[in-house]
Amino acid sequence: MYEPIRTKSVHTTGGTPTDFPHRSREEELDIQLAGHLAALLAVTDEIRAIEPSADLDAAAQRLAEQVARLREGVAPVRASAAAAHELVALHQRAHALAGRALVVAASRADTAVAILAAERMDAHAPAAEPRALAAR
Predict the structure, then answer these.
(1) Rg (CA), the chain
(2) Cα(79)–Cα(40) distance, rounded to whole angstroms?
(3) In this predicted model, which residue has the larger pLDDT, 14 or 110?
(4) How many CA within 13 A on the CB side of residue 38?
(5) Taken in order 117, 120, 125, 129, is the CA torsion positive or negative?
(6) Is 2 exposed, middle or buried, given 0-12, 13-18 or 19+ CB atoms closer than 10 A?
């Protein structure tokens, strides 16, 4: 009663599913986590240029090590000079980036990065409030 379809559907992909490389969920999470940590490192470098401290130096070093580990030894690009940003905004951005890194680290069960991200959230939380810097 019905004639069989003789042409390919417009919804059929061009070839086999192996035509392009696939990444595992773990690899995708590694890429995402490395991106969040690299962004946090850039903000940390900007804050360090405005307000140098040993805590920020140590945090930047740990962040750089974790980014390099996640990128299989490729070192992250570092910020060389601070832009003329408001310090509160930088701390707020750093706090938000650390939170994103914490979420991804928890989903991939990376304890070392989760601890580092939580520490960075704690470090930036008080300074991220505008009243905290006004009191200085």
Answers:
(1) 22
(2) 11
(3) 110
(4) 16
(5) negative
(6) exposed
The predicted-structure confidence for 61-78, as pLDDT tens digits, reads as follows 999 999 999 998 888 877
Q: CA-to-CA distance for 119 and 125, rounded, in angstroms?
A: 10
Q: What is the 3-state secondary structure (H, E, C) of 19-81?
A: HCCCCCHHHHHHHHHHHHHHHHHHHHHHHHHHCCCHHHHHHHHHHHHHHHHHCCCCCCCCCCC
pLDDT tens, residue by residue, 19-73? 667 888 888 999 999 999 999 999 999 998 888 899 999 999 999 999 999 998 8
User: Tokens 């408001």 correspond to what residue?
Assistant: 86
What is d(CA 47, CA 96) in angstroms, rounded to the nearest whole number?
15
Buried b (16+ CB within 10 A) or exposed e, 89-99: ebbbbbbbbbb
pTM: 0.71
136 Cβ contact list (under 8 Å, min separation 6) = none
